[in-house]
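Posting for a labmate who doesn't have an account.
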Amino acid sequence: MNDTRSTAAGAAAGGTITIGGDLSVNRLGFGAMRLTGPGIWGEPQDPLNARRVLQRALELGVNFIDTADSYGPDVSERLIGETLHPYPRDLVIATKGGLIRPGRDSWERKGDPAHLRKACEGSLKRLRLERIDLYQFHAPDPRVPLEDSLGELVKLQQEGKIRHIGVSNFSVAELERAARIATIVSVQNRYSVGARRSDDVVTWCEPRKIAFIPHSPLGAGEHAGRAAQSALTWLLARSPMMLPIPGTSSVAHLEENVAAAGTSPA
């Protein structure tokens, strides 16, 4: 079980997806939000375990890791950089900017260009990257025109600091508007067996070959073991553009989740 060669096919068993036309990753990724402290705030209670989860994800063939500057804040990105750098050539790290954390239970939208530029540059430093493969605008800010927020990401892309642009928590109407500003290669919305409000977004993404990255793919933690595997298998079967990113702070749960890639739909 600990032989990397024998487990590397784990995440690969679900097939691959191409993001932006040039990033091919296995179709079961890892969400690094829960590697932080309780409430997605502060340092992990067991830093060595958090690092082991990241290392084990790569051993299991995971080559897409999702994070954000607001997770911790900054903690998740820093752990990834400290633990996995220098990165394997096939590893894609996606991060997000546009939310701030005034306190443990506070999440506020902040999409002004100055903040997004500062957020992106901070992510580059923590992740030890010269360019972020996939940078996602975390949520529309009602106080800032979408053209201004995404326009700044386009500038960062032109400067070589971002490879591809994605969005998160967007409706179809907002996606239509976003697509007139930037080339959008991914959408990350809440979606699971029990939370399907973004069905229309999944349908919108599929013919456009835009990756749909469901956050909270196991719901609010109500699925574990075989139930979690069934939930992930359902997502993989829902659309070829689906890229689930189940997150956990447990090596055992990580192994259970990745096993779903090789499970046939019920």
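Reply:
Got it, the structure tokens are right above this. Confidence is low (pLDDT under 50) at residues 1-8.
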